[in-house]
Design goal:
Blueprint (H helix, E strand, L loop, with lengths): L1 E5 L4 E4 L13 E8 L5 E5 L3 E4 L8 E9 L2 E2 L3 E5 L13 E8 L2 E7 L3 H4 L4 E7 L13 E3 L3 E4 L7 E9 L13 E4 L2
Antiparallel strand pairs: 1-2, 2-5, 3-4, 3-6, 6-7, 6-8, 9-10, 10-13, 11-12, 11-14, 14-15
């Protein structure tokens, strides 16, 4: 399954047809879609593409598609998707940031954003510098991850670092400010 088109209130999802087998020529697809973790709307089609309208921006949705013939139904394919990204109403940022030094490496972890908070699939950007003053988004991030922790190697254990974490969604827009800057003193 793949999202092939999107606006802030609709998406188009498409898929490849199954390989023909056992002489079945007619395939009907059963589609189930809705807000993530809810019971959705079920419908059928003979097309390998469907449009879903009247969606809310920034809400995680799911779709399942299974192919069926007179011989039975195939395996369900599953996709989580969002509509086209919009700038959120309120800035969001990672919270509960924890750090642990181990020699010249630093493990950084944080409370991950939910899909609802992030309004998309979040990518976390770690800003770590050894200069004085606040960490700014204009500098290049030290690292990025889709997980809620990361290990950064090769740091100078005698240096003091400034740390901030920002988050972007799959639309590429940094949403909200980087987390509050904090001073990390090496131990």
């Amino acid at each position: 399954l793949m999202k092939t088109a999107s606006t802030d209130t609709s998406v188009t999802i498409s898929w490849d047809p199954p390989e023909p087998s056992d002489g079945y020529t007619s395939v009907t697809y059963t589609i189930n879609h809705g807000v993530l973790n809810t019971t959705g709307e079920v419908r059928t089609t003979e097309n390998t593409e469907t449009g879903i309208n009247r969606l809310e921006p920034g809400i995680p949705y799911y779709i399942t598609v299974s192919a069926g013939t007179t011989g039975g139904n195939g395996k369900e394919e599953y996709l989580i998707f969002f509509t086209m990204e919009q700038v959120p109403n309120e800035p969001v940022k990672p919270s509960t940031i924890k750090t642990v030094w181990n020699g010249n490496s630093l493990t950084i972890s944080w409370e991950p954003l939910t899909l609802y908070e992030a309004r998309g699939f979040p990518v976390y950007y770690i800003y770590l510098n050894d200069s004085s003053g606040p960490v700014k988004r204009e500098i290049e991030p030290t690292a990025s991850t889709t997980e809620s922790s990361i290990v950064i190697y090769g740091l100078d254990s005698s240096q003091t670092y400034m740390l901030a974490i920002g988050v972007a969604t799959d639309g590429g827009n940094l949403i909200g400010p980087v987390s509050g800057s904090g001073v990390l003193e090496s131990i």
